[in-house]
Amino acid sequence: MGTKIVLKKDVDTLGKAGTLVEVAAGYARNYLIPQGFAVRATPGLIKEAEQRQAKQREIQAKLRAEALETKKLLEGVGFYEVFVQVGEDGNQLFGTVTNQDVAEVIQSKTGVAIDRREIQIDEAIKRTGVYPVRVRVYQDVFATVRVQVNAAG
């Protein structure tokens, strides 16, 4: 049977600070408690940790709901147009369309700021046309937007 402890610091394998976890008695007694990573769970600490976790779940649910609204907004726009310099044939781009380019056009069209690292372009965009692009809005919420690449000028 394990020992219930409340983490005082983040522990990669167990969880974040304030989390109530159950671990092997020896692990708690010989490592976590002496190193200051945890304290033995008392009824008061258990109640406090449960309240904190409930509050955290509430916050996560609210953030996820907002993310679903943002996803709906992003996908509701028909195309996000990006204008770039092209070669003489009219299709081949000078360079590629980057995540930053997509983030800027999304922000200019919808007002939603998206971090460029949350944008996933499956294939390098080197020609004009329409491309599907995945945007991570929240932990497990992804929006698929269509990016129309056009010749500038």
From TrEMBL:
The keyword Disulfide bond does not apply. Keywords: Ribonucleoprotein, Ribosomal protein, RNA-binding, rRNA-binding. InterPro entries: Ribosomal_bL9, Ribosomal_bL9/RNase_H1_N, Ribosomal_bL9_bac/chp, Ribosomal_bL9_C, Ribosomal_bL9_C_sf, Ribosomal_bL9_N, Ribosomal_bL9_N_sf. GO terms for molecular function: rRNA binding; structural constituent of ribosome. Pfam families: Ribosomal_L9_C, Ribosomal_L9_N. GO terms for cellular component: ribonucleoprotein complex; ribosome. It comes from the Bacteria. The keyword Nucleotide-binding does not apply. GO terms for biological process: translation. Residues 15-42 form the Ribosomal protein L9 domain. Binds to the 23S rRNA. HAMAP family: Ribosomal_bL9. Belongs to the bacterial ribosomal protein bL9 family. This is Large ribosomal subunit protein bL9. It comes from Gloeobacter kilaueensis (strain ATCC BAA-2537 / CCAP 1431/1 / ULC 316 / JS1). The lineage of its organism: Bacteria, Bacillati, Cyanobacteriota, Cyanophyceae, Gloeobacterales.
